[in-house]
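Here's what a typical entry looks like (Probable membrane transporter protein):
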Amino acid sequence: MVIELCLLFFLVALVYSAAGFGGGSSYLAILALWGIDFQLMKSTALLCNVAVVAGGVYHFYKSGHLPMKKALLLSFVSVPLAFIGSYLPLKQETFFLLLGVALTLAAVFMCYRMFFERNNQEPETLREGNGTLYGFIGGAIGLLSGMTGIGGGIYLAPVLRLGKYDTAKNVAGLSSFFILVNSIAGLMGQAAKKAIVFDPAFAGPLLIAVIIGGQIGARLSARVLKPKWVAGATAVLILYAGVRMLVK
Protein backbone atom coordinates (compact mmCIF):
# COMPACT_ATOMS: atom_id res chain seq x y z
CA MET A 1 0.00 0.00 0.00
CA VAL A 2 2.77 2.46 0.91
CA ILE A 3 4.47 2.00 -2.47
CA GLU A 4 1.22 2.79 -4.32
CA LEU A 5 0.64 5.85 -2.14
CA CYS A 6 4.21 7.04 -2.69
CA LEU A 7 3.74 6.89 -6.46
CA LEU A 8 0.44 8.78 -6.29
CA PHE A 9 1.84 11.40 -3.91
CA PHE A 10 4.91 11.84 -6.13
CA LEU A 11 2.71 12.51 -9.18
CA VAL A 12 0.46 14.92 -7.26
CA ALA A 13 3.46 16.89 -5.95
CA LEU A 14 5.03 16.92 -9.42
CA VAL A 15 1.96 18.48 -11.03
CA TYR A 16 0.83 20.80 -8.25
CA SER A 17 4.23 22.30 -7.48
CA ALA A 18 4.49 23.63 -11.03
CA ALA A 19 1.40 25.76 -10.35
CA GLY A 20 2.47 26.86 -6.87
CA PHE A 21 0.21 24.45 -4.97
CA GLY A 22 1.02 21.85 -2.32
CA GLY A 23 -1.56 19.23 -3.31
CA GLY A 24 -3.21 18.92 0.11
CA SER A 25 -6.68 18.36 -1.33
CA SER A 26 -5.44 15.44 -3.44
CA TYR A 27 -3.41 13.91 -0.60
CA LEU A 28 -6.50 13.97 1.61
CA ALA A 29 -8.69 12.52 -1.13
CA ILE A 30 -6.25 9.67 -1.73
CA LEU A 31 -5.82 8.93 1.98
CA ALA A 32 -9.59 9.02 2.52
CA LEU A 33 -10.17 6.54 -0.30
CA TRP A 34 -7.51 4.29 1.25
CA GLY A 35 -9.34 4.41 4.58
CA ILE A 36 -6.53 5.99 6.61
CA ASP A 37 -7.29 7.22 10.15
CA PHE A 38 -8.57 10.81 9.98
CA GLN A 39 -6.04 12.22 12.46
CA LEU A 40 -3.16 10.63 10.57
CA MET A 41 -4.66 11.94 7.30
CA LYS A 42 -4.69 15.53 8.50
CA SER A 43 -1.17 15.55 9.94
CA THR A 44 0.29 13.77 6.91
CA ALA A 45 -1.39 16.11 4.40
CA LEU A 46 -0.16 19.22 6.23
CA LEU A 47 3.39 17.85 6.46
CA CYS A 48 3.38 17.02 2.75
CA ASN A 49 2.10 20.51 1.97
CA VAL A 50 5.00 22.06 3.85
CA ALA A 51 7.51 19.72 2.19
CA VAL A 52 6.28 20.61 -1.32
CA VAL A 53 5.71 24.36 -1.12
CA ALA A 54 8.79 25.24 0.98
CA GLY A 55 11.01 24.76 -2.06
CA GLY A 56 8.47 26.51 -4.29
CA VAL A 57 8.39 29.58 -2.04
CA TYR A 58 12.18 29.81 -2.26
CA HIS A 59 12.15 29.56 -6.06
CA PHE A 60 9.33 32.11 -6.45
CA TYR A 61 11.04 34.55 -4.09
CA LYS A 62 14.41 34.12 -5.79
CA SER A 63 12.89 34.76 -9.21
CA GLY A 64 11.05 37.88 -8.01
CA HIS A 65 7.54 36.42 -8.15
CA LEU A 66 6.68 36.65 -4.46
CA PRO A 67 5.58 40.19 -3.45
CA MET A 68 6.10 39.93 0.31
CA LYS A 69 3.87 42.86 1.26
CA LYS A 70 0.88 41.20 -0.42
CA ALA A 71 1.86 37.79 0.92
CA LEU A 72 1.92 39.05 4.51
CA LEU A 73 -1.37 40.89 4.06
CA LEU A 74 -3.07 37.74 2.76
CA SER A 75 -1.68 35.71 5.66
CA PHE A 76 -2.14 38.18 8.51
CA VAL A 77 -5.63 36.92 9.38
CA SER A 78 -5.36 33.42 7.91
CA VAL A 79 -2.46 32.18 10.06
CA PRO A 80 -4.14 32.64 13.47
CA LEU A 81 -7.43 31.30 12.07
CA ALA A 82 -5.65 28.26 10.63
CA PHE A 83 -4.20 27.65 14.08
CA ILE A 84 -7.63 28.01 15.69
CA GLY A 85 -9.26 25.79 13.06
CA SER A 86 -6.71 23.06 13.65
CA TYR A 87 -7.02 23.41 17.44
CA LEU A 88 -10.80 23.03 17.43
CA PRO A 89 -11.88 19.56 18.60
CA LEU A 90 -13.68 17.84 15.74
CA LYS A 91 -15.40 14.49 15.85
CA GLN A 92 -14.62 12.09 13.04
CA GLU A 93 -18.09 12.51 11.51
CA THR A 94 -17.80 16.32 11.53
CA PHE A 95 -14.30 16.19 10.07
CA PHE A 96 -15.36 14.00 7.14
CA LEU A 97 -18.43 16.19 6.51
CA LEU A 98 -16.25 19.30 6.34
CA LEU A 99 -13.66 17.49 4.26
CA GLY A 100 -16.33 16.27 1.85
CA VAL A 101 -17.55 19.84 1.33
CA ALA A 102 -13.96 21.15 1.04
CA LEU A 103 -12.96 18.52 -1.53
CA THR A 104 -16.10 19.06 -3.59
CA LEU A 105 -15.42 22.81 -3.67
CA ALA A 106 -11.77 22.16 -4.52
CA ALA A 107 -12.86 20.03 -7.50
CA VAL A 108 -15.10 22.88 -8.70
CA PHE A 109 -12.25 25.39 -8.43
CA MET A 110 -9.92 23.02 -10.27
CA CYS A 111 -12.46 22.65 -13.09
CA TYR A 112 -12.68 26.42 -13.30
CA ARG A 113 -8.91 26.67 -13.66
CA MET A 114 -8.95 23.96 -16.32
CA PHE A 115 -11.78 25.19 -18.53
CA PHE A 116 -12.02 28.94 -17.98
CA GLU A 117 -8.65 30.26 -16.88
CA ARG A 118 -5.95 30.93 -19.43
CA ASN A 119 -2.74 30.20 -17.59
CA ASN A 120 -0.55 32.37 -19.78
CA GLN A 121 -2.91 35.33 -20.01
CA GLU A 122 -2.02 38.24 -17.78
CA PRO A 123 -4.67 40.73 -16.67
CA GLU A 124 -4.63 43.89 -18.76
CA THR A 125 -4.57 46.05 -15.64
CA LEU A 126 -4.12 45.08 -12.01
CA ARG A 127 -6.69 46.39 -9.57
CA GLU A 128 -5.22 48.39 -6.75
CA GLY A 129 -6.71 48.43 -3.25
CA ASN A 130 -9.07 45.93 -1.62
CA GLY A 131 -6.08 44.42 0.19
CA THR A 132 -8.06 44.26 3.43
CA LEU A 133 -10.90 42.42 1.69
CA TYR A 134 -8.51 39.79 0.32
CA GLY A 135 -6.98 39.53 3.78
CA PHE A 136 -10.34 38.56 5.26
CA ILE A 137 -11.01 36.16 2.39
CA GLY A 138 -7.64 34.62 3.17
CA GLY A 139 -8.71 34.38 6.81
CA ALA A 140 -11.83 32.38 5.93
CA ILE A 141 -9.75 30.04 3.77
CA GLY A 142 -7.20 29.73 6.57
CA LEU A 143 -9.89 28.61 9.02
CA LEU A 144 -11.06 25.93 6.58
CA SER A 145 -7.43 24.97 6.00
CA GLY A 146 -6.79 24.41 9.68
CA MET A 147 -9.96 22.38 10.18
CA THR A 148 -9.46 20.06 7.22
CA GLY A 149 -5.72 19.97 6.46
CA ILE A 150 -6.08 21.54 3.00
CA GLY A 151 -3.49 24.26 2.40
CA GLY A 152 -6.01 26.63 0.83
CA GLY A 153 -4.12 27.69 -2.29
CA ILE A 154 -6.60 25.91 -4.54
CA TYR A 155 -9.26 28.37 -3.29
CA LEU A 156 -7.13 31.48 -3.04
CA ALA A 157 -5.55 31.45 -6.50
CA PRO A 158 -8.80 31.69 -8.56
CA VAL A 159 -10.06 34.49 -6.30
CA LEU A 160 -6.84 36.46 -6.83
CA ARG A 161 -6.92 35.85 -10.59
CA LEU A 162 -10.56 36.88 -10.92
CA GLY A 163 -9.88 39.98 -8.86
CA LYS A 164 -6.81 40.83 -10.96
CA TYR A 165 -4.83 41.02 -7.74
CA ASP A 166 -1.52 40.28 -9.44
CA THR A 167 0.12 38.55 -12.40
CA ALA A 168 -0.24 34.79 -12.90
CA LYS A 169 3.30 34.03 -11.73
CA ASN A 170 2.96 36.27 -8.69
CA VAL A 171 -0.37 34.65 -7.80
CA ALA A 172 1.38 31.26 -7.92
CA GLY A 173 4.07 32.61 -5.59
CA LEU A 174 1.46 34.10 -3.24
CA SER A 175 -0.44 30.80 -3.20
CA SER A 176 2.73 28.88 -2.30
CA PHE A 177 3.49 31.23 0.59
CA PHE A 178 -0.13 31.09 1.76
CA ILE A 179 -0.13 27.29 1.79
CA LEU A 180 3.21 27.16 3.61
CA VAL A 181 2.31 29.46 6.51
CA ASN A 182 -1.21 28.07 6.93
CA SER A 183 0.02 24.48 6.90
CA ILE A 184 2.63 25.32 9.56
CA ALA A 185 -0.06 27.08 11.62
CA GLY A 186 -2.29 24.01 11.26
CA LEU A 187 0.48 21.74 12.50
CA MET A 188 1.10 24.10 15.43
CA GLY A 189 -2.60 23.95 16.31
CA GLN A 190 -2.49 20.17 16.29
CA ALA A 191 0.66 20.20 18.42
CA ALA A 192 -0.95 22.58 20.91
CA LYS A 193 -3.78 20.12 21.56
CA LYS A 194 -1.38 17.16 21.29
CA ALA A 195 -3.24 15.73 18.30
CA ILE A 196 -0.39 15.33 15.80
CA VAL A 197 -0.31 11.73 14.65
CA PHE A 198 2.98 10.92 12.92
CA ASP A 199 3.87 7.40 11.90
CA PRO A 200 7.44 7.49 10.51
CA ALA A 201 7.02 4.17 8.70
CA PHE A 202 3.92 5.51 6.94
CA ALA A 203 4.53 9.24 6.52
CA GLY A 204 8.31 9.11 6.00
CA PRO A 205 8.23 7.53 2.51
CA LEU A 206 5.36 9.82 1.50
CA LEU A 207 7.35 12.89 2.53
CA ILE A 208 10.36 11.72 0.52
CA ALA A 209 8.09 11.13 -2.50
CA VAL A 210 6.52 14.60 -2.39
CA ILE A 211 9.85 16.35 -1.80
CA ILE A 212 11.32 14.72 -4.91
CA GLY A 213 8.17 15.33 -6.95
CA GLY A 214 7.89 18.91 -5.74
CA GLN A 215 11.49 19.76 -6.59
CA ILE A 216 11.15 18.29 -10.07
CA GLY A 217 7.83 20.02 -10.66
CA ALA A 218 9.14 23.39 -9.53
CA ARG A 219 11.86 23.19 -12.19
CA LEU A 220 9.85 21.92 -15.14
CA SER A 221 7.77 24.12 -17.41
CA ALA A 222 4.03 23.75 -17.85
CA ARG A 223 4.63 22.75 -21.48
CA VAL A 224 6.58 19.71 -20.33
CA LEU A 225 4.17 18.66 -17.56
CA LYS A 226 0.88 19.70 -19.18
CA PRO A 227 -0.59 20.03 -15.66
CA LYS A 228 -3.89 21.40 -16.97
CA TRP A 229 -5.08 18.00 -18.19
CA VAL A 230 -3.60 16.05 -15.31
CA ALA A 231 -5.38 18.47 -12.97
CA GLY A 232 -8.62 17.58 -14.74
CA ALA A 233 -8.16 13.92 -13.90
CA THR A 234 -7.22 14.88 -10.34
CA ALA A 235 -10.38 16.98 -10.06
CA VAL A 236 -12.44 13.88 -10.86
CA LEU A 237 -10.66 11.97 -8.08
CA ILE A 238 -11.21 14.77 -5.57
CA LEU A 239 -14.86 15.16 -6.57
CA TYR A 240 -15.45 11.44 -6.21
CA ALA A 241 -13.85 11.39 -2.75
CA GLY A 242 -15.75 14.50 -1.64
CA VAL A 243 -19.16 13.28 -2.81
CA ARG A 244 -18.51 9.84 -1.32
CA MET A 245 -17.88 11.41 2.09
CA LEU A 246 -21.02 13.54 1.87
CA VAL A 247 -23.34 10.66 0.99
CA LYS A 248 -21.70 8.14 3.33
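The radius of gyration is 16 Å.

More examples are in the samples folder.
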